[in-house]
Amino acid sequence: MAQVDETNGTYLKSLFDPQVVGDLVTEKLVPNIVFAPLAIVDYSLQGRAGDTVTLPAFGYIGDAEAVEEGHDIPITKLATTTKEVKISKIGRAVQITDEAVLSGYGDPINQATTQLATGIASKVDNDLLGALDKIDGGANGKNLFDMSGSFDPDKIPEALAMFGEEIEGDKVLLVDPATYAALLKVKSWVPSSDIAAGMLLRGSVGMAYGCQVRVTERLKGKDALYIVKPGALALFMKRDTLVETDRDILNQSTVIAASKLFAPYLYKPSNAIKIKLGE
User: Fold this and answer.
1) Which residues contact 70 (CB under 8 A, 6 or more apart)?
2) Of 32, 63, 78, 124, which residue is the least packed, with the fewest Cβ within 10 Å?
3) Which carries the bigger pLDDT value, residue 57 or residue 19?
4) Of the candidates 4, 8, 30, 10, which has an alpha carbon nearest to the alpha carbon of residue 109?
5) pLDDT tier at 157 (50, 70, 90 boundaries)?
């Protein structure tokens, strides 16, 4: 009887090593979150109890003032507002039979980790857009631009003016495919090949009115576009991506499950402008 080679032999337990599979999912997940460059990622919630977190937003203290010699510098109270955000749990799982793994046809383990990463990343992106959709302009309507009726690209500079003195710097215009077609006709359009080195988001298609343009199907039928600067959003991680495997001995298959606990948040509203379309 041949001796079993437990060092070099191929076994299901090694193919489904949770650490290995988890590393594969995480490695593929990070670049798949399209809007991550626009968000601050914060891990300070890890290890803390509770399924709801109270997050701060800081108001502007105002411009500095002239101070005469011998006089005190005026003190201004740092104004803060808070918002309770519910921790979201997202997850997806796949089941792979022993026959599929051992046949090696199509590399099912690689396909499973790829699709798990894609599914989680897509949900994170949807939730980040959901945070942007909560922009209502507040009492002064500062970051809500009403473009009622059909989209007019010539009005984008008016929307950009809402940034005020902070108009400079990198900005991304998130649009649906129909809006992209209209932007291609504007005089300021710059193709992606001319700005590739400075792209904020993977898949950006060009630049218009000083904004990098990223097309997303997620905005179809939403009646809204967004101009976003880095740091407008935040991802508060309660628990980063967890990948687990479990064995079903009756049908001889293995389940791979991936999940994430996080809170998407509009961290700095002044860094984002919502362009409201429709009637």
Assistant:
1) none
2) 63
3) 19
4) 10
5) very high
